[in-house]
Amino acid sequence: MTINETHIDLLSRAFENDPMFIHLLSNKYRSKKLIRFILKQNRLLDGLVLTDDMNDPSYVAIVDRPRNLRHVSIWAKVKLNIEMFLLLFRLPFHVLRFLTNYQKTTFSIAPNQPHYYITMIGVDPSHQGKGIGKKVLREIHEIAESSQPAYPVALDTENQQNVAFYERVGYELMDTKIIDGLEIYCMRLPVA
């Protein structure tokens, strides 16, 4: 699926009040740079991007598939390393340091077996509260359950209010970590 600026704008608006984005990024310009990188990384690693419309989406979800980096092509690894290098010039060093710590910490808590990982689900603020987030989660859960074998799903959130929402749909809180003063809630949906 081709993602365009409309999708990046939606994700930027959806995460405008997210604790991590507030903590790290001082403006929408930097937020969009990070979102573009996340999308490129997802594409290079054969991830999933779910949305309902190419021109006027109400949501965008970025999901990493279960993978083993040994099965990623050398060309994809080279391109990913180039994108990571370019990120050095697009975001402040403290942001990159935080993201590195975040990734190490959350990977250490994630399920040891292959799993789907929800990187982002962004619902347009004008559509929030209408059940779209639950619908998107159901779609992701169906994908994970229909895989052969079925895989668990993991996610991390920095918004404490999200923890109760995810628990209501079956997620378990695995651990809570603090990185640079920001609380990270690591969650998992076990295989049904």
From TrEMBL:
In the record, what terms sit under GO molecular function? acyltransferase activity, transferring groups other than amino-acyl groups
Q: Which domain of life is it from?
A: Bacteria
Provide the alphabetized UniProt keywords. Transferase
Q: Which InterPro entries match?
A: Acyl_CoA_acyltransferase, GNAT_dom, Trichothecene_AcTrans
Q: Which residues form a coiled coil?
A: none
Asked if the keyword rRNA processing belongs to this entry, the reply reads: no
> Pfam families recorded for this chain?
Acetyltransf_1
Q: Where is the N-acetyltransferase domain?
A: 108-192
According to UniProt, the name of this protein is Acetyltransferase (GNAT) family protein
Q: Which organism is it from?
A: Gracilibacillus kekensis
From the broadest rank down, the organism's phylogenetic lineage runs: Bacteria, Bacillati, Bacillota, Bacilli, Bacillales
